[in-house]
Design goal:
Blueprint: E1 2-5, H1 11-20, E2 24-25, E3 65-68, E4 83-89, H2 92-105, H3 115-135, E5 139-145, H4 146-151, H5 153-163, H6 170-175
Parallel strand pairs: 1-3, 1-4, 2-3, 4-5
Amino acid sequence: MIVSGLPRSGTSMMMSMLEAGGMQIMSDGARRADVDNPKGYYEYDRIKDLERETDKGYVREARGKALKVISFLIPHLPGDNDYRVIFMRRDLDEVLASQDKMIQRLGSDDAAADREAMKEAYRNDIVRTRILCRKRQNFALIEIQYGATIEDPAETARRVNEFLGGRLDEAAMRKAVDDSLYRNRSGQP
């Protein structure tokens, strides 16, 4: 089970929902919760090297668990597994605003210089990921909108639970959504 999307698209929120619903999470806790993700990142640090690794056998350890894999790395998942992908979608202006704030808080000046070029790169990644997941027979895909999840967590919990076989606690998943963390909304300065 893979939770994917662009950076800052709600993947950590979805991982939190899955954990609350009773699904095991594959996370090493190396990246601690902070002001940008107060409930944690739910990452497995080794996955960041997926593109360069030759031995990807550790991915099999995630069977029956949720593993967070950023969308850029989806093409590098080993082909000998079946994947159910929850693909988080968020307004691209919100994604970029959230990234910019995070970069500024980290004291870096690497904020997106050309927002339109970044948006185009992200659009291309979304299309590539959607096509890949639909073309490969070992992938099943559901797309979840971040904003819709904040507005109606019950509906998202229902859809995700149905997609994953109906064994999760939807009420607990619903409660894991914290709308106070939706700080970078479209239309904000």
